[in-house]
Amino acid sequence: MAGGFAGGGSGGGDYEGKVTSFVIMTCLVAATGGLLFGYDIGISGGVTSMDEFLLKFFPNVYHKEKALKAGGNQYCKFDDHLLQLFTSSLYLAALVASFAASITTKAFGRKISMLIGGLIFLVGAVLNGAAMNLAALIIGRLLLGIGIGYANQAVPVYLSEMAPPKLRGALNVCFQMAVTLGILVANLVNYGTAKMAKNGWRVSLVLAAVPAIIMTVGAVFLPDTPNSLIDRGQKEKAKAMLQKIRGTNNVDNEFEDLIIASDMSKQVQNPWGNIMKPRYRPQLTVAVLIPFFQQLTGINVIMFYAPVLFKTLGFGDGASLMTAVITGLVNVVATLVSIFTVDKYGRRCLFLFGGSLMLVCQIAIGAIIASVFGQDGLGTFSPALGNVTVGLICIYVAAFAWSWGPLGWLVPSEVLPMEIRSAGQSITVSVNMFFTFVIGQLFLTMLCEMKFGLFFFFAAFVVAMTLFIFFFLPETKGIPIEEVNRIWKSNWFWKRYMPDDDHPNTNV
């Protein structure tokens, strides 16, 4: 990942090497960690729309939803704090776990964190599938959250450190691709299990064990990154690994830069204090604001609660689940667009285009819902208007999937210098998980209180985040990971925080 300097060696970071099948395979295996996150994002909304699940764990919601089918305020069908806690508790646990994961990742390597995350997630999936009461259900969700906290902390760092500069964006986006595949699979599973006469929700929840097993087994066989090996004093092994992933023996320039980066990071005694220094203000700002804005796009309104949202809009049980499958499929296809364009057109281009399209869609969706339900929540979508709304939601999901979805993980992971990398990645994951928790816990209540205005609320944040990208985020496309610090010196605003020398002050 980003070493915050241009050390000796290559100087310009023009390292020799090629894109090897070995590095592609290792990155693809590591990226399956995103399956954990994606499956759980998709699965919760589906099971919370299943009558059997609601009747067992949330009978009040079940009876209220059935009563409102005959008429009443459609905005408030599913407003229940315990129901929202089922979805959101996972992300609160992930927030706390990310701090422990940062210590593990730095001390023992990235693959160990992925292994730990997979094992804990596996236990949580089994407990959820076997839950007989709400307490067991929530405990299982908390364990899933710990697993996700470890995976989301380690996988983006692993991918950034293994990938060659010219393919770093595409390989890192594979993590988000795995997330979208996990969401799609979860939606398909929910659509199938909803047709089961009994315990369909148990099947949906316990199948989360499958991606956990994939990541856990994969982590056993993954190699450590050269950066991690150097950090732990295994320089000869690190050089051999670097030669293997670059497909050449001539890696002296890159290896020397990695050594310098590691030596400097070890001089930093307090990375958490160091990241607060003015010279790291750009990286800290990106580490906080990008995951914050990613969640305030409102995407989790769709990803968490798609079946619930579509039922609120008047779709039947089967239709709401199928519509969630359609949005999941759009999510996957659009993420492919990002993989093939992120290293060609750059991060800023995708951010700005995606954000603009999301804004248009959110305003249109809010206006349509306002015209149908108004303030009192009384009304019914016509089939034609329902199809238009679903189409707009699909366009919105596509815009997110090629911009803020993958780039919300890629950009923070590639701009953090080695000396603050673990702390910075923990901040990114924590901010992401905290606001994911907030949205998961409050959305149904906000929908009940703010009604159609909720979509305009999220649209305002899309305006703010698009302006932030335009004015404050420099392009990182194609810049060697050890040299990415120089981009801040060329930005009109951030250059004031950058010292004349490229070496961080390590007297902490």
Automatic annotation (TrEMBL):
CDD domains: MFS_STP. Residues 26-477 form the Major facilitator superfamily (MFS) profile domain. GO terms for cellular component: membrane. It comes from the Eukaryota. GO terms for molecular function: monosaccharide transmembrane transporter activity; symporter activity. The chain crosses the membrane at residues 19-39, 82-100, 112-132, 138-159, 171-189, 201-222, 284-306, 318-342, 349-373, 385-405, 426-446, 452-473. It is a multi-pass membrane protein. It is found in: Membrane. It holds the Pfam family Sugar_tr. Keywords: Membrane, Sugar transport, Symport, Transmembrane, Transmembrane helix, Transport. Gene3D superfamilies: MFS general substrate transporter like domains. Belongs to the major facilitator superfamily. Phosphate:H(+) symporter (TC 2.A.1.9) family. This is Sugar transport protein 10. It comes from Nicotiana tabacum. The gene is LOC107808223.
